[in-house]
Amino acid sequence: MARTGLGEALMTWRAAVAPGDVGLPGNGTRRTPGLRREELAQLAGISADYLTRLEQGRAANPSPQVIEALARTLQLATPERSHLYQLAGLASPVPDRIPRTISPSVQRMLDRLNDTPVAVFDAMLTELHANALYVELMGERTGHERNAAWRNFLGSTSRVRQTPASLGQLQELQVADLRRTAGRYPNDPNLQALVDELRRRSPRFAELWESGVVAEHQAGRKIIDHPVAGAITLDCDVLQVAGDDLRIMIYTAEPGSSDAEKLALLMSVGA
């Protein structure tokens, strides 16, 4: 029997879910890996016969409710979930909230970078995590200051040395980034509140927001004026985590340079 892409995907994802992952006992011998068809159907709240017909390509046009129940039960990540909707001929629903969770794999990577200033931001540019060296370099940020856009449009102090031109470019980048985020998460209340406040209190932000400015993250070199180590020149790279919609900001110094020595000094101060 000819199966559809939807049927093949459902069978593949069903085989990848261990019974214990969904609260089912995993004891006993199973002829096939993963969940049985009847188990997936029961957990998703649909009939086993309907799931059989979906997998065999004998049922078409499943409802969004059915697809969402299957995606939830199969524990699909955001890209897989969107692909399931596409296979079913449905538009993927717009997420209500910006992801603000750091996955274990990303956290393991961060734990290996203790000798490098690293911070993680969500899609609305709010700091979620900063390692000890990043905090020592930039200072600890609390409240509204944890959001990079709020800080650069409404904040008062920063250790990063800026010229009017470099600050203007940074602001353009951040407004463009927030506009793209608003397109992906139009219903996130925290993002709406941030944009509303910045438009109300910052004429510069309001001007850029209305102008439709376009910009992309690029690697750059920054000078940080540290109260103990003095001026430190570092390369700044922003990495994006696919699927989680996170930005990882990493500062590095040229090996063997005086800036690298100053970073080492900051590590000893932090320790």
From TrEMBL:
Name of protein: Helix-turn-helix transcriptional regulator
SUPFAM superfamilies (UniProt xref): lambda repressor-like DNA-binding domains
Residue span, HTH cro/C1-type domain: 34-81
Signal peptide residue numbers: none
Pfam families with a match to the protein in the record: HTH_31 (PF13560), MLTR_LBD (PF17765)
PROSITE patterns: HTH_CROC1
